[in-house]
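Dear V.,

Thank you for sending over the compound details. I've combined the ligand you provided, zinc ion, with the protein sequence from our construct and run the structure prediction for the complex. I'm sharing the raw inputs here so there's no ambiguity about protonation or stereochemistry in the SMILES, which I know was a concern on your side last time.
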Amino acid sequence: MSDEAKRDPLRFLVVVAHPHDFTHCAGTCGIHVLMGDSVTVVTMTDGGRKHNEAYLDEMSKPEAKRDPAIANQTQEDYAAAKNREITEVCAVFGVKDLRILTFPEPLRLQHSPEAVDTLADIIADVRPHVLITHAPYNMSPAGITTHGLPTATLNDHRECAIMAMEACAMANMPDYEAKKQPHRIAAIYYLGVDVMPDQVDFYVDISDWKDHRQRAEALFKSQGQTEAFARKRIDIGAGSMGWAARTQYAEAFVRSQVETLPCIEVPQWSLQLASGSRIEHLKHIAGESTAQG
Ligand SMILES: [Zn+2]
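Below is the predicted structure of the protein with zinc ion bound, written out as structure tokens.
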């Protein structure tokens, strides 16, 4: 990273369906914040109807046995807690520009077509070079993602991605009335967690950000996540991507389109892997050595 040629700072825009979805690229965002790039995170919903496991548990009981403190919780109470959590999570990765939108869940383009205009306005405001969002398609014939979770044809993540892609098109269309300056995004990447492992285009090594990712998971207490759960989730999730990436922890991405390079570029990591000690590499994967390769 440090030996890269100096370049102008990039502006990143992350558009996700729910607050927790940001975590899937949070380490990468942290790396770019440290490099001097700016990161804006937009969550299309406040997540008020997602992952409230304690509430669902309580409401599964007969009415007389429910704890009123949990059963009487409102969607606003839960969303407010989640807002506090995602704000803290963004701070962990140095992200200062967080925009929590409140489109209804389930998030559907047909129910909230105005979301496209809202996002197009955000694109016009932020003028990002890079957009990171969900995959706008179901990559797996079985509808199973890297999460190992089956996904419906319609789901919040895919709908969010379609909204974001529509907004990209809108932001680059002539606006004869408002005379808005058009904006074209240089690079669009989809979150690797939304696709099958063999559909990932590249990994970002976030081994140095593992503790941050765990802290972020543990901060989502409203979802019932404990410290132990946070460790397990990152070890399995970012850890399995790290394993595929031949490092400790990684985040996966898919290019929205084939990229054109100035020449054949070999990442420093690949060169280190090729020429470095095999034993040191095993130690690196095990977290026993900070030397890469
Ligand atoms: Zn989500």
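A first observation: The pocket of zinc ion is lined by residues 17-18, 20-21, 156-157 (CB under 6 Å).

Warm regards,
I. M.
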